[in-house]
Design brief:
The protein has 449 residues and is an alpha+beta fold. It folds into two domains: 143 residues, no CATH class; 255 residues, Transferase(Phosphotransferase), domain 1 (Orthogonal Bundle), CATH 1.10.510.10. 20% of the residues lie in helices and 18% in strands. The strands form six sheets. Strands 2, 3, 4, 5, 6, 7, 9, 11, 12 and 19 form a ten-stranded mixed beta sheet that branches. Strands 1-20 form a two-stranded antiparallel sheet. α3 packs antiparallel against α5 and α3 crosses α8. The longest helix has 20 residues.
Length: 449
């Protein structure tokens, strides 16, 4: 068959620059002194870059402030109504590092369960934020990888995610940290309002040199878990008119139940990856029957966790066999008529989620106990960590372009295999620019069809 032309994005030689003297900025401006090399564009306004100063990779988000108040339902994904972006108002960056930011801000703890904001700059209307890069992708990506092969996620990893997310919620609502382990009286609550698998990132520690240990690599079973994307976040005293819709457009104010309910959704969803979509359900018996265009959004409310635990899958003929204690605790997030009713129509949030106190005092304690027992010092059986290794789901890192000068091609000290790298870019062709959307494209011939 003849080859076909396909359209692809071309951006490997873009060098993203910043304003020499931004009116508003904060954080470590040195990473931006020589600009950034664009590595990957996920969507307009969301991309990965590499600093030409420290050569570290950063997540970049480009946002726009509405200069005039508009109805909240007209606010688009990369827009906001507050004086500064929600991701700056609620971030790990101390306000002492801000310059000319006129807004109330709240500092997130520097613990590992929050993604760190490294630098931001703005002209007052357009904002560019640089967050730390996390190499493990999102929890959504991990769930989909397990789902694609109908394998169950190791129970100890579910406990690990439980503990880290509970710690994040404990800080947001009570000022709790692993050091003080207490709820601060009078703490002004912070609402995330979008706890979903796509807003939970993973990061794997670099491997130490040497032979693979007999029991496996512990960090591959327990990667760092961090809550990210505070674009829908709110402070307890925020005006409702400034809030973005969050996950529930009909909820025009801050609610305690939303973050707790969605914590439960994430954890229950992780217990169902061994079941093919729609398997064992009768089409039409319930509204959420995992059929049709929105089939994926029916989970996890389409199934009770105990039923899912007993449901066989291609790789688990008898079901995954999660512990009774895990099923009991996650069952607390289930609610009557969940298979036939939208959560926002319940009316009383106590029916759809346990209390915040229960999350911090009971669920967090149980998760930490399970993890400590699994990781406790001492002799481990063969394959102890290998059997629960989740690093096989880790996405490939972005391809890093090789920058070279014309004379490098004839330099005997330059590795020729390096010069044949897919994304090699001559420095003289590098152009300083700001990214424009839609992104410029090029056409290439695909002869492998």
């Amino acid at each position: 068959m003849a080859g076909r032309w396909r359209t692809a994005y071309k951006y490997s030689s873009l060098c993203l620059t910043i304003n020499d003297a931004p009116a508003i900025e904060g954080g470590d401006a040195t990473i931006a002194e020589d600009g950034f090399l664009v590595l990957e564009i996920a969507n307009p306004g969301f991309y990965l870059v590499q600093s030409l100063v420290d050569w570290e990779i950063y997540h970049v988000k480009v946002l726009r402030k509405h200069l005039h108040l508009i109805p909240r339902d007209q606010v688009r994904t990369r827009e906001f109504l507050h004086p500064s972006p929600p991701e700056v108002r609620v971030s790990t960056m101390p306000s002492a590092e801000f310059r000319n930011v006129e807004d109330d801000t709240r500092l997130l703890s520097d613990d590992e369960y929050f993604q760190k904001l490294i630098y931001f700059q703005s002209d007052g209307e357009n904002w560019t934020l640089y967050h730390e890069y996390m190499n493990g992708g999102s929890l959504e990506y991990l769930i989909k990888k397990y789902q694609s092969v109908n394998r169950s996620i190791p129970e100890i990893f579910i406990w690990h995610v439980t503990a880290e997310l509970c710690k994040a919620i404990a800080y947001l609502y009570f000022g709790w940290t692993p050091l003080n382990r207490s709820k601060i009286q009078g703490w002004d609550r912070i609402y995330h309002r979008a706890i979903t698998p796509s807003n939970i990132l993973l990061n794997y520690a670099p491997r130490n040199p040497g032979a693979v240990p007999r029991v496996g690599i512990e960090s591959n079973a327990f990667p760092r878990i961090a809550l990210c994307n505070f674009s829908h976040s709110a402070l307890i005293y925020d005006l409702d008119a400034w809030l973005k819709p969050g996950l529930h457009p009909t909820e025009a104010t801050t609610n305690d139940w939303e973050d707790v309910h969605h914590l439960g959704c994430v954890l229950r969803l992780m217990c169902m990856t061994h079941i093919p979509l729609g398997a064992g359900l009768v089409p039409g018996e319930h509204w959420k029957d995992e059929q049709g265009e929105h089939a994926w959004s029916h989970r996890p409310d389409s199934r009770l966790v105990r039923d899912a635990n007993a449901t066989p899958g291609p790789s688990h003929p008898g079901g995954p066999g999660y512990s009774d204690r895990l099923m009991e605790l996650l069952g607390r997030f289930e609610w009557d008529n969940q298979r036939d009713q939208d959560v926002t129509t319940v009316g009383e949030w106590g029916y759809v989620a346990p209390t915040l106190d229960w999350v911090v005092d009971t669920l967090l304690f149980e998760a930490e106990t399970m993890i400590w027992n699994f990781r406790r010092p001492g002799e481990k059986p063969r394959g102890h960590f290998t059997n629960v290794d989740v690093s096989w789901t880790r996405p490939l890192c972005p391809l890093i372009p090789v920058l070279y000068d014309d004379q490098d091609e004839d330099d005997p000290n330059v590795d020729p295999t390096r010069m044949e790298y897919l994304l090699k870019t001559q420095r003289r062709f590098m152009r300083n620019c700001e990214l424009q959307f839609p992104i410029p494209k090029f056409r290439e011939r695909d002869d492998n069809r």
